[in-house]
Amino acid sequence: MGPVIELIAGSYEQIAFGYRVSTGEEEWTATADFTHHAHTASVSAVATSERYIATGSRDETIQIYDMKKRVEHGALLHHDGTISCLEFYGSSHLLSGGQDGLLCVWSTRNWECLKSIRAHKGQVTSLSVHPSGKLALTVGTDKTLRTWNLIDGRSAFIKNIKQNAVIVKWSPEGDKYVVVIGDKVDVYDLETATLTSTIINPKRISSIKFLTNSILAIAGDDETVRLCDINTQKVLCEFEAHETRVKSVDSFTVDDFCVLVTASNDGFIKMWKLNLESLEPPVLLGKVNTTARLTCLAVWKPTTLQEPPPEVKTEPTTSHEQILIFNDGLGTVGLTACSGAERVLEHVPAGEEEKLSPSTSKQCKPFDNE
């Protein structure tokens, strides 16, 4: 049995998509696993961990999905404004940033908000957690880059970058970090906190992904994806991935090769096989047309092998409520998808769906930090 892999994408149409990947010898396929209308506005961010998927939206909520139990927990309600960024640290914590300038740290054990930090005077546009879990970086519309001590929730360092950065990200080894401003990527060294190099992209950058500690995949307002060396600033490889601009990129490894996943405004999600040693032009493994305008993308690939998830279909009930049906061969398990509710799946007889009662989502008080 091959690894369990799902491609998770958000869209302007308020829908979160899940596609199960089947790995073939030559061609890979991505089969629709679920489509869920959990939000009442466009989906702006998505993140995955070993067990959970989180989606953020312009509707000010974070929806949590338990992929192990095939259960939707419901909404985390704390931010006031768009959820602009989400990132899991391991399997224990979720971090969120929003239009309200807050950086929130959530426990995945009980979904309690452990810290709520007033990180920026404007919107938090991006965040990244250090591999150690002790530090986090944020950038915002107040034109600052901030380093946070996650142990005590205090600001450890503030840098005035004089421009609005849209992305910040640690390298896999945590010795460097990159900041994206417009069409350029600034590379910083952690030990000296100095700018070591700058990579210029032909178009405004929309998404980046570290493939190794030195190779960075860059996508922007065109159809091309470029692989760059952050030490030499050289473009190692570039290829036309889509017919329109590439909105988001992610990656995962299978056996001895890297798979780069790209999502575009043209509605397609594509999987590309990369050889990071030879850096030859990538080979298209497979693609799927979501027919939606995609906004964000993440890969869910648990490290423990599992049986493939049960087949999923959706059956709409009303314009405000939807029942998600998982057919596991023994019967069905159903849940209501009404906004802001906590949902629990229960087995019911085959052919019968049961709506479950919502319960109150958790909230927390802000932790002030000027």
List the helices and strands and how they pair.
Elements: E1 6-11, E2 16-22, E3 29-36, E4 43-48, E5 52-57, E6 62-66, E7 71-76, E8 83-89, E9 93-98, E10 102-107, E11 113-118, E12 124-129, E13 135-140, E14 144-149, E15 154-160, E16 167-170, E17 176-181, E18 184-189, E19 194-200, E20 205-210, E21 215-220, E22 224-229, E23 235-240, E24 246-254, E25 257-264, E26 268-274, E27 283-289, E28 294-300, E29 311-316, E30 322-327, E31 332-336, E32 346-348
Antiparallel strand pairs: 1-2, 1-28, 2-3, 4-5, 5-6, 6-7, 8-9, 9-10, 10-11, 12-13, 13-14, 14-15, 16-17, 17-18, 18-19, 20-21, 21-22, 22-23, 24-25, 25-26, 26-27, 29-30, 30-31, 31-32
Architecture overview:
By secondary structure, the chain is mostly beta strands. Helix content is 0%, strand content 54%. It is built from no helices and 32 strands. A hairpin with a 4-residue loop joins strand 18 and strand 19. The C terminus is likely disordered.
Kindly estimate the percentage of residues that lie in beta strands according to DSSP. over 45%
| Residue runs with pLDDT of under 50 for 5 or more positions | 305-370
- What's the arrangement of strands in the largest beta sheet? 3-2-1-28
Query: For the report, how would you describe the main beta sheet?
Result: 4 strands, antiparallel
- What fraction, in percent, of the residue positions are helical? under 10%
In CATH, the homologous superfamily goes by the name: YVTN repeat-like/Quinoprotein amine dehydrogenase
Region (Disordered): 350-370
Subcellular location: Nucleus, Nucleolus
GO biological process, one term: ribosome biogenesis
Main location: nucleus
